[in-house]
Design a protein that fits this description.
The chain is an alpha/beta fold. The chain contains 11 helices and 12 strands. Helix 4 packs parallel to helix 5 and helix 8 runs parallel beside helix 9. The chain binds iron/sulfur cluster. The site of iron/sulfur cluster has 14 residues, from helix 1, helix 4 and helix 8.
Length: 280
């Protein structure tokens, strides 16, 4: 069995940066620090971070008098003010690419534009983006949802950074039909683009694909769907124990990719297990 690991597998810049910032604060402070929500959608990495005294706050938890780290997804300004009022200090690890979209939304909505975000309304990044609008703002996940929007004069369309490119393109076309002259900006992150493009190429070229990442990670689930459409033998695993080794032993080439929140050490363990089962 030949093992082909995608070059883009694993942490993106924004997640890597947020984890590095949290570790630096915890080390410098020499005490427990808190993150506003889980820093990463990966339970194994969250456990490891806990052992380094980096603890996520759950929704509704009181904000402690300690350093609190804002994760890569960002948060609405109002929520940030609440945390600032309670925490000892706030360390902003919002991904710079997300910050740029937040600024664009604030600028355009201050000029009177209605904002349309192509994304998942429940995703924390989208909640944070919505919070930066100073006027009407909407979230759509499909062209049909564009049809349900009210009549609007000036429109800015942006995307959640991990949005599927095909979905965004379909929404963009419908927005321009309904609101000619709308400003449509593809704000899908280049790291997402690279990862999804490589996953498609990989899935076409192998007999089976292993996608590694948290089950609660939207970008990992999306990678799984992309690979599954092109390669029916696609498996989503969080850890090496979940590998269907008996089935994988029967194939010639196995592709391995991983979501933006999957740490390198888990990818390495999965590859080691595949090697131990006869891969090379
Ligand atoms: S996917 Fe892109 S925008 Fe989102 S955190 Fe990672 S680098 Fe930043």
């Amino acid at each position: 069995m030949e093992i082909v690991v995608a070059r883009s597998a694993g942490f993106c810049m924004g997640v890597r940066r947020a984890i590095d910032m949290a570790r630096e604060v915890a080390q410098n402070e020499g005490r427990t620090v808190f993150t506003h929500g889980p820093l990463i959608h990966n339970p194994q990495e969250l456990e490891r971070l806990r052992s380094e005294r980096i603890v996520p706050l759950a929704p509704g938890d009181p904000v402690p008098r300690a350093p609190v780290i804002v994760r890569a997804h960002g948060i609405p300004p109002g929520e940030r003010r609440q945390i600032e009022a309670a925490a000892e200090r706030v360390v902003d690890a919002t991904c710079p690419k997300v910050s740029r979209i937040q600024q664009t939304i604030a600028e355009y909505s201050a000029k009177g534009y209605a904002v349309v975000i192509c994304g998942d309304a429940d995703h924390p990044e989208v909640v944070g983006l919505l919070g930066h609008a100073r006027g009407p703002a909407y979230v759509v996940g499909s062209p049909a949802e564009v049809d349900a929007l009210p009549d609007l004069a000036e429109v800015l369309l942006v995307a959640q950074t991990t949005q599927d490119e095909g979905v965004f393109e379909a929404v963009r076309r419908r927005i321009l039909e309904r609101y000619p002259g709308a400003e449509a900006m593809s704000t899908i992150c280049s790291s997402t683009h690279r990862r999804q493009t490589e996953a498609r190429e990989l899935a076409r070229d192998v007999d089976a694909v292993v996608v590694i990442g948290g089950r609660n990670s939207a970008n990992t689930r999306r990678l799984y769907q992309i690979c599954r459409e092109l390669c029916p033998r696609t498996y989503h695993v969080e850890t090496p124990d979940e590998l269907p080794l008996e089935e994988l032993k029967r194939v010639h080439r196995v592709g391995v990719t991983a979501g933006a929140s999957t740490p390198a050490w888990i990818i390495e363990r999965v590859v080691e297990s595949l090697r131990a089962a006869g891969g090379e």
